[in-house]
Amino acid sequence: MEENKNDIYFKWGLTAVAVIVIALVISLIFNKLGIIATAISTIISTVSSVLYGVVMAFLMAPVYDHIGRWVGEILSSLFPKWKKSDKYAKMIATLSCLVILILVVFALIMMIIPELVNSITNVISYAPSGAENLEAWLKDILNKNPNLEKLIIGNYLDISARLSDIATTTVLPNVNTYIKNLSSGVLNALGVVVNIIIGLMVMMYLLNMKTTLASQAKKIVYAVAGVKIGNEIVTEARYIKNMFEKFIVGKIIDSIIIGIINYVFMAIIHMPYALLISVVVGVTNVIPFFGPFIGAIPSIILLLLISPVTALQFAVWILVLQQVDGNIIGPKILGQTTGLPSFWVLFSILLFGGLFGIVGMIIAVPTWAIIYRTISRLSEHFLKKKGLEPDSKHYMDLDHIDEETKKYIKLE
After folding, report:
1. How many whole angstroms separate alpha carbon 54 and alpha carbon 41?
2. Which of 41, 216, 369, 393 has the fewest CB atoms inside 10 Å of its own CB, making it the most exposed?
3. pTM of the predicted protein model
């Protein structure tokens, strides 16, 4: 009996020490949060080229697998006794992925750059007339709404004075800073280009090594965690990989379709900057929920310089296109990939977007789906362990659970 009491006291003491240590670690992390964030940022910037390669390898892995399998079958049928057919199939698949990426980037550049130059030229040439059209449109609205005219004219001088004050006290004294920031931006852009080139080389290595790396990772997992827990880890890792692959690849396909539909619509009704705006809409559509609106804002501003009516037509069209994508095209392509309710989709995008910016918004939905699934599985595990029902329907309108019979008592 005395030994049992000693065991209990020992466990209590051990638990108290563990809680204190965890509290101290959490406190230290929060106190040093700025230093940790800086260190993480430095590490990420240092290995950014490798990260580019990992992302490109992840996106091109399905293409690599299909091409490698197809070329391998052809070589095996043509040369049945050739032992190096698999090696050459992998080499051809890797080169094909590299060529596809280069062609895609080249095609985007050839589409965007001439259209962008043309758009800037047109904006500069049409800016005076566009401003006059906008002014005439506003005057027409104000003439029909005297109260609105009084409100705007009453605040016009105050707004003008404030803008003039900002220009003289803030903008002009900081011209040198803006030039330095522009120069550093150009250097950063060059750094990104270099990182992408290195990333392409990293991608080629990873595509050829992915099977070996996966087998080595599994070996380490089973060596450390054992068979039972190792099987769980491998299963979860496979689920995570499939989740990201299906969602991101599906979202890219969905965005390409949306960009094409937008271009066809704008070309049919003869809207200006159809190609440039369609590329912007397609690229930003990769961001769930908010993507179409992020792409629409600069496009509407650009069209507003040409014609307010055209800008309004485009705004209405984007709303229609977003509804079609969200209710028809997106579900057909993505299906129930994540299984998340709409609220959690919105919540995850806001959370990860606030923490990690645009990249966070792109990875938010699959990442939160994994967290959501993990929490669900853990709660089910602990409920079963306590002899309780894991299905949520048993907790609808629940008042309490009887402690002795474990019966679910509903609210009256």
Report:
1. 18
2. 393
3. 0.65
Contacts of 345 (CB under 8 A, 6+ apart): 288, 289, 338, 365, 368
Model confidence at 229: pLDDT above 70: yes
Q: What is the pLDDT of residues 14-56, one digit of tens each?
A: 777 777 777 777 776 666 656 665 666 666 666 777 888 888 8
**Does one domain contain both 188 and 208?**
yes
Measured CA to CA in angstroms, residue 278 lies from 102, 105, 345 at distances of 21, 16, 25
- pLDDT tens for 52-83 read 888 888 888 888 888 888 888 888 887 777 77
d(CA 205, CA 356): 28
Asked whether 287 and 362 are in contact (CB, 8 A), the reply is yes
Residues in the chain: 412
| One domain for residues 244 and 157 | yes
Instruction: Note whether 274 and 266 are within 8 A (CB).
Output: yes
Are 187 and 47 within one domain?
Answer: yes
Domain hosting 295: range is 32-337
Strand duo 408-410 + 398-401: pairing: antiparallel
**Which residues face 400 on adjacent strands?**
409
> Are 222 and 363 within one domain?
no
Q: Record the tokens describing residue 168, joined without a space.
A: 């003289």
pLDDT tier at 344 (50, 70, 90 boundaries)? confident
Same domain, 3 and 60: no
Residue 198 shares a structural domain with residue 275: yes
End position of a domain, from candidates 305, 337, 369: 337
DSSP assigned state of 341: -
Check residue 337 and report its DSSP letter: S
281 with 368, same domain: the answer is no
- Total domain count for the chain? 3
Give the residues across from 408 on adjacent strands.
401
Specify whether the CB–CB gap between 318 and 296 falls below 8 A: yes
DSSP 38-66: HHHHHHHHHTHHHHHHHHHHHHHHHHHHH
